[in-house]
Structures are given as structure tokens and as C-alpha cells.
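Input record (one chain):
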Amino acid sequence: MSHKSINAHFTYLKTKPWFRLFVLWATAYSILLGFFFRQILKDSGYIEIFPNELILPMLMHATTALIFALAISKTRWLKSYTSKVMAVIVLAFSIVGYDGNLQAFAGTIRAITPWLSESDPLGAVSLVYVVVLYALAVAIGVGLERGLNHYKKINKKDVQIGLFVLTGYLLIVPAFSMARILPTIISETSVQAPPIAQVTPSTDKEKPDIYYIVLDRYTNSDVLNKQFKYDNSPFTDFLKDNNFYVNNNANSNYPYTTMSVSSTLNAQYTNKLVTPYKENAVQSRALYHNLIWQSSVVKAIKSQGYKYYSLGSWYGATYKAPLADRQYINQHVLTVMGKSKTLRGIEASQFAQSPYYRFAQMADVSWWPFKIVEQDPIGDLRQQLDVLNYLSTKEKPGGRFIFAHILVPHEPFYYNADGSLSITTNADSVGKPIKEKYVAQVKFINTHMQELVSNIQKQSKGQAVVIFNADEGAYPQVLNDTFTKPTGTSSHAEASVNEDENMTIWSKPWTDMKFGILQAVHIPRATEDDLKNLSSVNLFRIVLNRYANYNLDYLPECQFGLVEGNQKEYNYTSITDRFSTKPDRACQNLSTVPKR
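The corresponding structure, as predicted from the sequence alone:
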């Protein structure tokens, strides 16, 4: 086809209303998509995203762009196509970060709309705000149109081309970056651990419940004593009185939630799984998330006839449980025309920033077809505790594997020791010393866990397996208020933020706090030798050996520290000699990078 015929064909297309509408839609969508990609790329946010979670936000932005294109195309005040292009661009720009801007202007809008009372929901205010943005976009479009009509020397086609180049640039740069990293993320997030081999099938018909409870950032008793000046023995003595084995000096194998829980729930160290990707510039944390979601331990336990119950959190490692027979994870549930979908991660955050969010909060209007039901972190915890109470008192015991990831004593510090809500929730020493806030949450959750243990022991007649195994300890940088220290500090006790990236140079108090974990288990069939090998990575090797006729060897206990910060979580080396006097040659062999 010749250049002249292409030009003629394009000129013909421009006369078609559907094509002009498509261009307006593509213009608005380019802006919305460009900002969406930039937000993901900012601060390496993409390392916690599964690529398929991008689909819903992209469809949502496409719908928004279509609504804008239809509204602007039908506006009779805009005569020229150039003015319509300008108006749709302004409207798309104004909608970026919508909900934050809405809240900032809500007071002003209420002041100029006396018919809206303070009790009216933000959905009503949002409607007024949308109208204002639409009017502003139209006004700018009209202004451009009049300006072009006045200044005849300015060619409208040149202005249109300039606007299209601008919107194209806004999309192309971040889209290119996303296209470059997505194949790597797709490859990494498809990683699964191999099945756990069983030589002889189990014939045991007894299936006592198995509770695996992760209290996030709950450090061990030794650290609580030495660094927090808190004696946790009332809780640990209670557990011992209920036939728990308590390791007061337990340490996690890895420093962060995803690394730690993925290793525990696959009963192996992750070096073989991540080593093929350790040189990648992008190291997706969602790889570890997928190892949790597709846990080989869960699959092995389910193969024995157990039902899997997941009480996850808002965090990506546990906000979804594809293998679960029951999920109790309903933080953001969107319902459209009777169809419900749980929003997670980037889906939830993008929806919460969109114009649809406030309109979906009209749950009190029975006929409204578009609703979202949400729980805040306090509601999440209450639901978890209520479900655990129900499962341990009301439901028939046996044949259940129950995993609960509870974000306490993890900050924010919502709770006082007596369970009342704190007014000083931030991870700082405002209101009271930060270590006191942390200890208050330890006391609070101890009370609930004691009640849970009593319920389980009574319900199961002492036969249930109950595992308390934290994922990581508290952040020493936060709990010691050392994030604000100047760089270049020579003392490891007050290491700078730059030094935080390399855990091999952390002080011993820092590594003790970060790796120290609550570890207490009630495994009735466990032998003395089993308990001598107790560690996070061996927990379910013990359980499978004693309750499912497996014959798994116990792995050496190792601690691995990151050497390049938490953006490079595939690159870790053994720091076991910080915690043990035993030679750590075996642990060095399990490192993904050599010791520096």
C-alpha cells in the first residue's frame, strides 16, 4: 500500500465517529496506564506483584478511560476534535490519585454544597467532585478551542500531534520498563518446590488437628529479657505446663516473613529454588509467596486426608491460599450485580485510589448494585481470633490443618497489654517508648494464645499438634530508634541505614533481635531426638515423620543473612556462626552467595 493510499485511508477513518471515540479512549487510557505502571515501578513495588494481578486494574482503568471518552465526545460545548482531546487529557490527569485528592478537597466541597451534611458519605461528595473535574476539563478544552480560533497561525493538527506525543511518552517509557521486567517476574513467580517423597503410605486412621500459628515478629524469650527487659516466663511456663516444648533461644532460618514461612511450609531451605535467579536484576519476592501458596507441606498433609484451613492476613504471602479448603481472608470484597470478588494487593490498592471506591461504599443502600465490604487491620485480627475460638470450641475436631498468620506483635502497635486500643500506634517512641509498645502487644497476644491453647487441649484431649513458630523477630533498626542515625557511624550497635543492607556486618544484638523467634510446640508423638532437631525448617519434617509415616532426614539448623538488602532476597549467606559454636560448613553449602 502506497503512502498516498495510507494517508487517504487514515483520512477516511478520521471521519468515523467510532474511530474518533477510540482515539479519545486510547489517549485517556495511555495516561492512566502510564501512571499505573509508574506507581508499580516506584520503589521497586513490582517485586511483590504477581503479573495476573495487573489484569483487573488495567481493565478498571480501561473502563474509566471509556467513560471519559464517551462523556467528552458527547459534550456539545466542545466543537473541535482538538479541544476534545485536550479535555480528555485533563480529565485523565485529574483522576490520578483520585481518592487522596477527594479527601483533601472534601471540606471545601461540603462548604460550597450546603445540601451535603457532614454525615453524608464521601460517595455523595465524590459525585460533586467528579462533576467539578468534568467541568474543569471542558472549560480548559473550550479555552484551547477559542485560543486556536483566535491565533490562526497555530495549526490545530500540530497541537493534536503534540498532545498525542505527550500521552504516548507518558505510556511508552514505563510500559517499556514493565515489558522488560515482566518476563523475569513471570518466570520467578512460577517456581514451586518439588513434592515431598513418601516411601510407605500411612495407614493411620487417627488424624489429630494440626495448628500452625505464626505470630509475626515475635522474638524469643532471651531477647525479650536482655533487650526489652521483659520476663516472658508467665507465658512460656503456661505452655510448658500444657506439655509444650519451648525453645527460649530459638532463631529463624531467614530474616523476613516470605523467606522464612516459605522455607517452613516446604520443609527445606530455598537455595536450590532461588539460585537459578540470583543474578537477576529483578528478584521478585512473590517467588516466595508462590512457594507458600503452593506449599509442598500442605500438599503432603492434604494427601493424608486433612482439610486445609487458612487464616491469612492482608500481606501477599498469606492473602491468598489456592490450596485451602476454607479461606478466612476477606479484607476487601467487591460485589457487582451479585457477583463477588476478593481484592488483594495491587487490585485492592488501585481500586481504593479510583473514583469507584467511594461509590462502592454505599452498603446501606439496599438496591445499590456496586458495593465493597472492607475490614481494617483491627477487624482482621478480631476475625482471626474469633475463627480460632470457633474452630477450637464449636467445630468437630480432627483432620484439620489450620494455618494462621497473625500480624501481632508486628507494628502498628494497636493494642495495649489489656487489649484496649492504643492511641500511640506508630512505630516510634512518641507517646511511650517503642519497646514498651512492642511488649504491650506481646502481653496482649499472649493472653489470647493461652485461651486458645486451653480450648485446643480440652477439645482434642491433648492430642492436637500445636505449633507456635514466629517468622522473624523485631526490626532492631526500628526498635532501637537507629533509623535516624547519621550515615558513616562506625559502631555496629548504631549502624547506619546504608549498613542495614549487609547483615554480615550487623552487631550481635541486632541479629539476635531480628532472628530471635517464639518457638513452642506440642507434638505428642515427637521423640526426644525429634525435638533436638527442632528448627523452623524441620518443623514439618517432624510432623510428617510422626503423623504420616514419612522418613525424612533432619536438616542442619542454619541462619542466613542478606548481603545486598531486601531488594535482593535470593542473595543470602550463612551467618550461623553468630548463633552457634558448631562449624557451619553445611550451612555455607546451602548459601546462595559465598560469605564475604
